[in-house]
Amino acid sequence: MASEVAAFRGVGKSYGRVRAVDGLDLVLRPGETVALLGPNGAGKSTSLDLLLGLREPDQGSVTLFGGTPRAAIADGRVGAMLQSGGLMTDVKVRELVELACKVHPRGRSVTGVLTDAGITEIAERRVDKLSGGQEQRVRFALAIAGDSDLIVLDEPTTGMDVSVRQGFWASMRAQADAGRTVLFATHYLEEADSIADRVLVLHRGRLIADGSSAEIKARAGARRIAFEIHDVDLSSAAVPFDETVLRALPGVQSLDVTARVPGVRTVRIRTADADAGVAGIYRAGLYPRGLEVTGVGLEQAFLTITGELDKQDLAEESAR
Ligand SMILES: Nc1ncnc2c1ncn2[C@@H]1O[C@H](COP(=O)(O)OP(=O)(O)OP(=O)(O)O)[C@@H](O)[C@H]1O
Questions:
Q1: Where is the protein situated, by its record's location annotation (predicted)?
Q2: 76 and 151 in contact (C-beta within 8 Å)?
Q3: pTM for this model (two decimals)
């Protein structure tokens, strides 16, 4: 189908007894920037390998642009940056990029690739003299050496410090702005949050969440309520301060009370029902000062979703 960049249909892949990918159904559409998240061993790299035709599924099918991964790659429709595989070392960065542009079926100009990857300044350096972060940028240059429709990146910012990483995100975003579909696996949730318009969460080879980062945060449901209780307000309160009242509020997942300043307690609650929580705080006769209700970050959402599944899996295992 023309509107499909990639499609996994009922895909399974095992390594011996390890089920690395388990019934994956997924369609990538043109122009999407998609982050693939998941804890270690969730099956991210295996899924990317299957997408690129580097491994064959045991079950189901993987198609790229309606055909086989191999055909799409031969047509130069895909650029990839994988974790494995070293770079040629006894050459300069420019020579390596020149070679990549030359052999690519849709090779771009060397100058354009060096600029887009942000490596013009290191073009005359030898590849074996680069730092880890610079090496990653050169790998990225090789992934964008052709005018590909899909760019696949496996943990591209590993080894980059924060400032380098942000520069790299801009390069990635520019690829998406040029209309290419970008799929990248990452451990950095802030990266998914700020770049991807779609986030996929894999867990034990299964796709457990698929949506915008806002949707994934909403699905985890949790919100934070924070406020202060001042002793001076308690004298007029209907009830004395009692943590058990807070713990009994609807949907409470965690409660943290600290008293760093005399006479002031800071309360932080994580809850699945912030509205009922706030109402309950007032109903209990408390006078919360500086009340704040905030959503959780993608990181917390991710931990909540995968943590719940781990708990379910453990419960199922022990019931057996
Ligand atoms: N070549 C292999 N032989 C045997 N088992 C493998 C092989 N490659 C991966 N696995 C196993 O398959 C599962 C999925 O691994 P995969 O590398 O796809 O996950 P990942 O999400 O990319 O992990 P990470 O974030 O650690 O890179 C893991 O349990 C892993 O140990």
A1: Cell membrane
A2: no
A3: 0.79
